[in-house]
Amino acid sequence: MNCGGQQGWVVQVVPGQDESLGHYLGRFRRANCLSHRTMGAELLVSPQMVSDWERPSRRQLPDPEQLERLSQRVGLSPTQLRQMFPPASMYLQTRLCPDCYAEVPVHRLTWQQQGLEQCNRHQLPLLSACPICQTGFRTPALWSDSCCEQCKLPFSQMRSHLAVSDVRSQTKSSSQIQ
User: Fold this and answer.
1) Sign of the torsion formed by the C-alpha atoms of 60, 63, 69 and 74
2) CA distances (Å), 79 to each of 67, 82, 84, 107, in order?
3) What band does 134 get if pLDDT is binned at 50, 70 and 90?
4) Under DSSP, is residue 148 helix (H, G, I), strand (E, B) or coil?
5) Contact present, 21 and 86 (Cβ < 8 Å)
6) Sequence-distant (≥ 6) Cβ neighbours of residue 113 within 8 angstroms
7) Taking 80 as the threshold, does the pLDDT of residue 44 lie above it?
8) In which region does residue 134 sit, left (phi positive, over 0), alpha (psi from -120 to 50) or beta (all else)?
9) Residue 103 pLDDT greater than 50, yes or no
């Protein structure tokens, strides 16, 4: 993204349904050409704190005062931001459903719920690595290209590379549930 000469917090970023806080903050920072340092200075927190908010496995969330300042800066209510907080019991590896991502390219909170192994909507296994090269997914805040960082396979095209047996077994198990 070209950020030459852009000043301040000018681009409002609309969160996707069920979007994770980390992914949202990463999109917000990129849209406004903000480093962790600049965003931290504006929010009166350390750059490390901003980085930790983007990485749910670090279990660092804004306190009420920080949440209020963040709310004012990003243009969302504290309630909207709280809804983006990671689940209490979460799967630590970043996961995604390629079909959901193809529909709306945001990282969803539900993908990180511990105990959930497949997408409730598409009955596909939740992927934690690229099906081509097996590279694990980066933290969602860093998903600027929407693809595997190693082989560059777009997230939205990963379904076509799943093993047929994976898709068939998921479809079979979901039909048995119904």
Assistant:
1) positive
2) 9, 5, 9, 19
3) very high
4) coil
5) yes
6) 87, 89, 90, 91
7) yes
8) left
9) yes
For all residues of the chain together, what is the average pLDDT?
Answer: 85
Q: Which two tokens stand for residue 130?
A: 């690229």
Closest residue by Cα to residue 10 from 27, 33, 26, 39: 33
Q: pTM above the 0.90 mark?
A: no
Query: What's the pLDDT tens digit per position in 68-79?
Result: 999 999 999 999
Which tokens go with 169? Answer: 């077994």
- The C-alpha angle 94, 98, 104, rounded to 5 degrees, equals 95
Predicted local distance difference test score (pLDDT) of residue 178: 36
Q: Give residue 66's pLDDT.
A: 94
Any long-range contacts for 135-139 (C-beta under 8 Å, 24+ apart)? Answer: 136/93, 136/94, 137/93, 137/94, 137/95, 137/96, 138/94, 139/22, 139/26, 139/54, 139/55, 139/94
Place of tokens 């690595």: 129
Structure token pair of residue 13: 């970023």
